[in-house]
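Supplementary Note 3. Input sequence used for the single-chain structure prediction.
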Amino acid sequence: MRTLSSAGVVDLWEHGARRHPLDRSLLALSVADPAAANDAADWPLGRRNAALLRLYSVWFGPQVQGWTSCPACSEKVEFDVDARQMAAAADGPAPGPVTVGEHAFRLPTTRDLAQMVAADDTESAAAGLLERCRIGGSATAEWSGALLTEIEDALASADPLAETRLAFRCPTCEHDWEDGFEIDRFLWVEVESWARRVLWEVHTLASAYGWTEAESLALGPARRAIYLQMVHA
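The predicted structure, written as discrete structure tokens, is reproduced below.
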């Protein structure tokens, strides 16, 4: 995967700032690997998430740090995960169709999720997603709750990185719970933070020396840091 320059991160942030999070993840993948631009939307979600985890480790290092709140006492609980180790869960042969009873399903993709964004509620979104991914079996007018759960469990087992949940125990009240982990959101937080930091550096140098954005970014991070130190001195 390609590394990202200071100018590149500003361009990525600018082009993705107003996009839906699903589109931002595809945009980041296309920047890191232009060959993925045409088909990443149709990758199974586990493959997409594994690529995003590897991309995170290339751009920001393997450790993803974050925090969540205990639902019982609101205590802040910090965590970190190894992006490269988590991505390894997707190694191996690509999973095939999933069969539950008379129905067969392909694995959901980003394109499928995008079609469900406007669904009225979670249940209708889940049913609509299954209809899009169903490749065998008779049409079903209504998916029962038990059948939905069985199919979702089978899809999750076949594609474990499609949805990642982390287990937590609160150090204060010892409450146990699980919370979702979405690498695309963590990746974009880092992209935005980096882009804003670069733009602040450009502003500082422009104020001190009258340089344009292109002139400041052309210096490269190391030389730019020295000029910034002299400005602040």
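The chain has a mean pLDDT of 92. The beta strands are 63-69, 76-82, 98-100, 103-105, 134-136, 164-169, 176-181.
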